[in-house]
Write a structure and sequence with these properties.
- The protein has 26 helices and four strands.
- The strands form two sheets. The protein has a two-stranded antiparallel ribbon. The chain has a two-stranded antiparallel ribbon with strand order 3-4.
- It is elongated, with a radius of gyration of 34 Å.
Length: 429
């Protein structure tokens, strides 16, 4: 009996060796496909989920962004902490040049619109003096607004809302958050599929050598497609704490890389998401933008009243009280409209002052394992069953293909003696 099995193995060596090789390829391919399905395509194709597909992360960008943000705010950083690192006086100095140019144009435009006759009749020296007086107060205005924002920052700025909004509308960026955070883990999932598939394939080969049944090859294919992904996920996150087993110390791959992941994740957040420009946009266009506008408008109107000084009654009389109020409203609105572009000049200082990458990195390194795991785990957990099911289905299809190929080979063969032997073994004689 044993001699017959050895003889058969030798006679059909390529056939049997193809089993572990095929199984390894299936394990690798199914894991790679599962990973691709997590992130691609960015936009839906067909009618998901059954008559089309969209990457799991892009399709649930808002939910994924909220989960990612839950780790960030307020556990690691708060709105107040960010703004308190910005010195209002220094901010005013950084944007003084562009702010003065903006004010210079605004003064001429608004006065030409609301007091055209008076403005046009003024000599150039008088116009220059008015512009200079307004410009001199511009830095003070910026400081006043910055101080007002900082005092009530929790109501004026929603950091979590800003992050979620940024990630939700940029699906490629939300993909990058997970892909760059877990790049080593995703690479491991793909490679481990080949290794575990090879091991399962060896078991499949031995099983087929001693016990030939039509269900064996499809069953092993399904097992490879399912188990390689499942085992890889287990090894990524478990155990969370180092565990000693004999001479070896094992720990989940993601947890083992906590320091490296913290550094890379923090840099991405600081460079791409919680940037000075995005923060200013979040303040000016966020859900509390009305309050921010009211704060700026009060400061602008007060500055205009101070500039007109004793002449204010005459100015109000010359243009009309209602037009005077409209003029102040217009000045505030135009200032707010131009602020995002003007404030870009403070980016370098603000980024350096906030030092967000280092702050986040140092705090992420100290997160307990369960909280740290939440940075990446949701990308795997969301619709994980579907991804594993796809892998299992592909494995089942390949296993069924193997069975049909082997039976065809047994039926046709390459030599009469071999054909006869294989046919009897497969029950086809």
């Amino acid at each position: 009996m044993l001699n017959a099995i050895v003889s058969e193995f030798q006679s059909n060596l390529w056939l049997y060796l193809s089993m572990p090789i095929t199984s390894a390829v299936v394990g690798y391919v199914t894991n790679v496909i599962a990973l691709k399905m997590m992130f691609l395509p960015l936009e839906p194709i067909g009618k998901p989920p059954f008559l089309g597909w969209q990457g799991v992360v892009p399709s649930k960008a808002a939910k994924m962004a909220t989960i990612a943000c839950d780790t960030l705010v307020p556990k690691l950083v708060t709105e107040r902490e960010i703004f308190e690192k910005l010195d209002p006086e220094r901010v005013a100095q950084e944007i003084e040049g562009p702010m003065l140019r903006l004010v210079d144009h605004m003064v001429e435009d608004i006065l030409s619109e609301y007091q055209p006759g008076i403005w046009e009749s003024l000599p150039q020296t008088a116009r220059d003096m008015i512009k200079r007086r307004v410009s001199e107060d511009a830095p003070k205005l910026v400081e006043e607004v910055m101080t007002g924002l900082t005092e009530d920052i929790e109501h004026m700025f929603d950091l979590k809302g800003m992050v979620v909004s940024t990630l939700s509308r940029d699906k490629e960026l939300i993909n990058r958050v997970f892909l760059e955070t877990g790049r080593q883990e995703f690479r491991f999932v793909a490679r481990s599929g080949f290794v575990f598939g090879l091991l399962f394939g060896i078991c499949q080969m031995l099983g087929w050598l001693f016990y030939k049944s039509d269900w064996l090859l499809p069953a092993f294919g399904l097992l490879v497609g399912y188990a390689t992904n499942w085992i890889a996920l287990k090894l990524i996150f478990e155990p969370a704490q180092p565990r000693k087993i004999g001479p070896w110390t094992i720990q989940g791959l993601f947890h083992k890389r906590q320091q490296e992941v913290s550094r890379d994740y923090s840099k991405l957040i600081a460079d791409e998401i919680v940037t000075p420009s995005n923060i200013i946009e979040g303040v000016l266009r966020g859900p509390q933008s009305d309050g921010v506008y009211a704060l700026i408008a009060r400061a602008v109107k007060r500055a205009i009243d101070e500039q007109t000084g004793l002449a204010r009654p005459f100015v109000a009389w010359s243009v009309g009280s209602r037009r005077y109020i409209e003029m102040k409203e217009a000045a505030a609105a135009r200032l707010v409209a131009h602020l995002p572009q003007t404030i870009k000049h403070v980016d370098a200082y603000a980024k350096d002052a906030m030092d967000l990458a280092n702050v986040l990195s140092s705090r992420l390194e100290k997160l307990p394992p369960d909280e740290f795991e939440e940075m990446l785990r949701p990308a795997f957990q969301e619709d994980e069953w579907m991804l594993i099911a796809v892998g299992a289905a592909l494995g089942l299809a390949v296993g069924t293909g193997q069975l049909l190929l082997f039976k065809a080979y047994a039926a046709v063969g390459v030599a009469p003696e071999l054909s006869s032997t294989l046919a009897s073994l497969f029950g086809l004689a």
